[in-house]
UniProtKB/TrEMBL annotation, chains A, B:
InterPro entries xref list: Amidase_Cbmase (IPR010158), Bact_exopeptidase_dim_dom (IPR036264), Peptidase_M20 (IPR002933)
Signal peptide: none
Assigned keywords, A-Z: Hydrolase
Family per similarity comment: Belongs to the peptidase M20 family.
Species: Arthrobacter pullicola
Gene3D superfamilies tied to this protein: 3.30.70.360, Zn peptidases (3.40.630.10)
Protein name as it appears in the record: M20 family metallo-hydrolase
């Protein structure tokens, strides 16, 4: 059994109907009924393509093609969950492309086109997005030992539901899922979520590094008081303090060359969030990202100064907790070379590219040789219903991932 | 039956135990179990003091002393509901003071100390605070015809529960409650929630005017996109837009003389409020208040200009909907004179004072002659667990309100 490009596009259309939104996107946050419906459809798809399904305790959903009994696995995947009101491609494209690549490569091995030395599997990592349950990349984080399983399962959404409860509403775990020690190679394909491939008119990207990043949790403590009668100099307004922090984070990017620093604050809680009571506390995320580690270091330093100014101006106390930080994190150069060789064999134009966004491959690449591929995004739009990748780019990506998979499964060198 | 000052303080302590918070305040938002428990205790209190209870369809809870069968009513009251994590005094002090004043004045009339020409009632207005169900002053708004009953009952909290459902969980309405046309006079006492009486060392305030105010609902529309990969110039970040609006509203106050303009933003909703997706929309309240109508007019004009700058800078669209506006709204000068005469008869130091905050009396005074009184707040703290009024000030207020009530019930002139 193999698959066609028209079959891939037809599957993508059907898959995009789960959690479909009026604006042409999807809304299927991790563990919601919409996510479970997508997982259930994918389960049926796996069975229809003779891939054995296995689900681990963290909710990661595998489809297995055993080519060499007892051998380690080449694993391909991404995630089917989405942000709220998100696009159809982010993650879901990569899972379906991986599933088709597994089927195509397995068929080629069975047809004797090459001799496999590994087994082959596709994975749908649970909760990559982290919008309902924080942190993001949860399923691959547990799989790679970065996040304890118990911590993940006990994580609550804003309504108090746990990951364990959300998973129990879907398909149960099986005891036959692969584990980290049985994985030999990992590959993932994703839409770029940026404009570089499109602007340079290049067909595929070979991801060689992640941007450096620092992620903070920022808490502003003020004092509740009456919005009307409290004199302005007496106020310790935690929402005004937050506004100064948000503006400072944004305006920090203007102190560097264009493209050298990205910053964002996107989630904010206000207490008590009442129309007639000044906020006593606000809590927000704050991210800084750069393709240059020295820029990031300077930005982190400047952020501290700007926060002190915001504190003084708003008479609040701002605490800045660094929750994650990473440098320019390289992907395996040999993996990049393997991807490049595959693109050249297929005649696709290609370039090395950095990823600003995190991916499940960011977790996997620290443990096994990993190949990360990009296809172009129209206008770079992502986390938006208008996210779009052209059909010809989408199927070209499936073809590239299939060629990469054939090379990985036959044991081409990926060690540096 | 009459009451003592020590009895008043003892009642106040018991009443403050409903919805009590660890920080010494209360949390009993309208229609919650904590609000119903307080209402239920007050119902028992009314019966114990031979006041007949009646509850109207908007949840306003009355205690009636019929002195002159068929005559109109002198009504005294305030509200028992609170902000989240609020102080014990705001509203609740005024209801209990009114209840004691009703009992004392009724006893004096029955003892033949004066001849009543009106009946006498205390009221606990439903949902003055408006934190759970917007708008504020809901019960008195329905009572005075400013808000349709159907609109009030259909109002939902953030969890989707309606006012009708919240009321049904408590005591049922009776068909014997007073209505606007049967009210002859209204009086209310409240803590100042400001520092003026304390700073000037004055015992009681006679409220002669409200500050002028303009209240807006502000919506900022941007575009969802990825917090990491979206280039800074491409972003249309609705939370950054909100931050600029919040800062602009605050900094507007610095363009006027101290005390001439208060502004606040205290409630903000962020969509989708995800850690990795730039906000597509934010919605917030924004208030401007001034003791000078020309200052308010200039501030409203300047706000429009600052909003246009925030829009341009954040590449968002900001819409500013004026939801409420009022000028320097006078209380009846004859009512102020009556309050002043009562204070002088008791030997209390007094001053005329403006109110920045809205009160149920703001609704009533547009329909019936109204007397509004203040007692001092320590440090002006309000909408905060640390809100405090000294016992001697609290009981002095009960005595003043009792004297005002005697004068109102015997028919002293309050027409201008």
């Amino acid at each position: 059994m193999s698959t066609s490009n028209t079959g891939f596009l037809a599957d993508f259309t059907v898959m995009s109907s789960f959690g479909a939104t009026p604006g042409g996107g999807v809304d299927r946050q991790a563990g919601t009924p919409e996510d479970h419906a997508t997982r259930s459809w994918f389960s049926t798809w796996l069975a229809g393509h003779r891939l054995r399904e296995a689900v681990d305790a963290a909710g990661n959903q595998f489809g297995l093609a055993e080519l060499v009994p007892g051998a380690p696995w080449v694993l391909l995947g991404s995630h089917l969950d989405s942000q709220p009101l998100a696009g159809r491609y982010d993650g879901a494209y990569g899972v379906l492309a991986a599933a088709h690549a597994v089927v195509r490569a397995a068929a080629a091995a069975e047809a004797g086109e090459f001799t496999p030395v590994f087994n082959l599997a596709v994975v749908n990592w649970f909760n990559e997005e982290g919008s309902r349950f924080t942190p993001s990349m949860m399923g691959s984080g547990v799989f790679t030992g970065k996040l304890p399983l118990e911590t993940a399962l006990a994580t609550q959404d804003l309504a108090g539901a746990t990951v364990a409860e959300a998973l129990a509403a879907g398909s149960p775990a099986s005891d036959s899922a692969p584990w980290l020690g049985s994985i030999a190679r990992y590959a993932e394909i994703h839409i770029e979520q940026g404009k570089i491939l499109e602007e340079q008119n290049i067909q595929v990207g070979l991801v060689d590094r992640t941007w450096a990043a620092a992620k903070y949790l920022v808490t502003v403590d003020g004092d509740q008081s009456h919005t009307g009668s409290t004199r302005m100099p007496d106020r310790r307004d935690a929402l005004y303090g937050a506004a100064l922090v948000i503006a400072a984070a944004r305006e920090l990017t203007e102190e560097f060359e264009p493209g050298q620093l990205h910053s964002s604050v996107s989630q904010l809680q206000v207490l008590p969030n009442s129309p007639v009571t000044i906020a006593r506390q606000t809590v927000m995320n704050l991210d800084l990202r750069s393709p240059d580690e020295s820029v990031l270091a300077r930005a982190m330093d400047l952020l501290g100064k700007r926060i002190a100014e915001a504190e003084a101006r708003s008479r609040t106390e701002v605490s800045l907790a660094l929750t994650h930080q990473w440098g320019l994190n390289p992907y395996s150069p040999a993996g990049v070379r393997l991807g490049r060789a595959a693109a050249e064999a297929l005649g696709f134009s290609h370039m090395d590219i950095m990823t600003v966004a995190g991916h499940d491959s960011t977790n996997l690449k620290d443990h096994v040789p990993t190949v990360m591929l990009f296809v172009p995004s129209v206008d770079g739009i992502s986390h938006n219903e208008a996210e779009f990748t052209r059909d010809e780019d989408a199927v070209r990506g499936v073809e590239l991932l299939t060629e990469v998979t054939r090379r990985l499964v036959r044991g081409d060198a990926v060690e540096d």
